[in-house]
Amino acid sequence: MRTSRLAASALLTVGALALAAGQSQAAPAVARPAAAPKTAACSAAHTKLTVQNVTRPINHQLLTLTNTGDTTCEALFHPSLGFDDDQSATAVIEDSKPQAVVTLAPGESAYAGMALSAADGSADHGRWARVVRVSLFDGSGSAGRPVAVPLPGGTWIDDSVSVTYWQADPADALVW
User: Fold this and answer.
1) Cα–Cα 20 to 30 A to 39, which of 14, 96, 109, 160?
2) 128-167 pLDDT, tens per residue?
3) CA-based Rg of the chain, rounded to a whole angstrom?
């Protein structure tokens, strides 16, 4: 009986050693995919900005940012706008913040809606505007100097003027 216990114990020890030896071998190297390169923020140097009138909603215009570069870029946050010689930036419609950053392949566009004036005429300081200065963001601040974009003739703004975050679809930019 004692011999059978010793034999069983020896077998368990040999089995445990064999198992431990098998686990100590290094696992085969698994190729890891290379990290995707970080997409840069869209900048004025590689984009084109335009403004156009829209039929609906009233008192709105559509700002379009088109990637003219050779690489993908991200339209971060919202454009910062200043009309003519205004000293302060235009208000941002925070509820328009999309769930994801708008990423633009070469030739693709992002859109921001501009609500120009109060539909009922209740806001102060109404005036005709000729140009809007647009600044883009790079994630930590302004991405270069503002770009002066001509406005369609007859653009009327007042103190209620506001802008949306960048959207992937023009209809989404004009909902606000």
Assistant:
1) 96
2) 999 999 999 988 777 678 999 999 999 999 999 999 999 9
3) 30
At a CB cut-off of 8 Å and minimum separation 6, what does 145 contact?
44, 135
**pTM, whole model, 2 decimals?**
0.77
**pLDDT at residue 114 tops 90:** yes
Q: Which residues contact 75 (CB under 8 A, 6 or more apart)?
A: 42, 65, 101, 102, 103, 104, 110, 136, 166
